Amino acid sequence: MRKILLSIIGILLVVFSIFLAKRMIDSKTKPKPVTEKIIKTVFTDTVNNKTIPILIPAHGSLRAKRRLELYSEVQGIFKPRTTLFKPGQVYNKGQILIDIDASEHYASVQSAKSNLYNDIAAIMPDLRFDYPKIYQKWQDYLVNFNMDQATPKLPNMPSEKENYFITGRGIVSSYYNVKNLEQRLTKYRITAPFNGILIEALATEGSLVRSGQKLGEFIDPSIYEMEVALSKSYATLLKVGEVVSLNNLEHTETYSGTVARVNGSVNTATQTITAFIEVKNEDLKEGMYLEAKLNAKEEANAIEIDRSLMLDGDKLFVVKGDTLDVLDVNPVFYSETTVVLKDIPNGTVILAKPVPGAYAGMLVKPFSDETTKVDNI
User: Fold this and answer.
1) What is the pLDDT of residues 31-67, one digit of tens each?
2) pTM value?
């Protein structure tokens, strides 16, 4: 009887324990929370297509359009002058840049001229008796012959008899020998071909100048050119005479230039073409580094947006209702910070700023009901 009683008590304890454990488990179970829908607030713009100018960025340094590298073709002592031959020295057109001592060569010229004069004078008696018709013009030639001036051109010799007679006496060869010496005499003095400034001086007054020696560089500071290399894809877009806006590196000054020339060949190594931008401004200097934006063409029915809004290069997030969607787009031009897109329907709502973690189907809400028209960032 006792065993039966203990068995019943044990069964009751087990049942009670199970019941108590179940009550305890049920008391710790919390109700599942209701998940709230997260709606992201985003900045949006409404597409308004228009004509966008395609601006090609480029950069380069200025170089004087008119420049003269000074070389000596003769040898002699560099003669001192009142105007020092130094960098920064300004010269007017026709002013002497370099004057080399030509006294020795000048004496040779005078000697050759004297020999020519004597040769002609020696044939005058023969001309008077044998060729009286041509005597007077040769006599006039001698009268007008001045040793201190350039040798005058020989009289015209229309008849073969006269030509043979004069040539046979060595007068023609003497004349061209004199002209050759006179031409070389002009190389001892170099004059400025235009108003400009000396930017490099490699010789000093009193030094010996040798033939073929570089003496310096002379430029016209009133007009400069900037050489820029552009992708060959722009070869058909660049036009001579196109106005170009240029800025210095600090973007504190803006200058206006024009496309002066476009190279007709493509650099095989870099696959670029070279364009030359002409610019005039008294504040510019040789070697200044400028940035330019070339107006290549105008793209109709297009918008310009920030490049950070693009997905995989040809997709864009758009807002449809209260969710994000992905739209395939047609990019036609990339700059460093923006991209030009074509053929997006007017009224399409797009993101104005990137949204971290955005995905198609994401719930969004515009920042405000008023959206800004997209035309040109």
Assistant:
1) 555 555 678 888 888 889 988 888 778 889 999 999 9
2) 0.67
Nearest to 172 by CA among 160, 155, 147: 155
CB 202 within 8 A of CB 43: no
Return d(Cα 26, Cα 366) in angstroms, integer.
45
The reply to whether 207 and 73 lie within a common domain is yes
Tokens of 13: 């304890």
Indicate if the pLDDT at residue 364 is higher than 60.
Answer: yes
Q: Is residue 244 part of a domain?
A: yes
Same-domain check for residues 72 and 202: yes
Are 230 and 60 within 8 A, CB to CB?
Answer: no
349 and 290 part of one domain: no
The answer to whether residues 130 and 238 belong to one domain is no
Q: Which of 90-94, 291-295, 303-307 ranks highest by mean pLDDT? A: 90-94
Count the Cβ atoms, other than its own, within 10 Å of residue 156.
Answer: 9
Residue 33 belongs to some domain of the structure: no
Strands 289-306 and 243-248, sheet pairing: antiparallel
Amino acid in position 246: L
How is residue 136 written in tokens? 């007077």
Claim to verify: residue 209 and residue 237 sit in the same structural domain: no
Is 263 buried (19+), middle (13-18) or exposed (0-12) by CB count in 10 A? middle
What is the domain range of residue 236?
Answer: 56-64+221-298
Q: For the chain, count helices (H), then strands (E).
A: 5, 24
- Whether 229 is covered by a domain: the verdict is yes
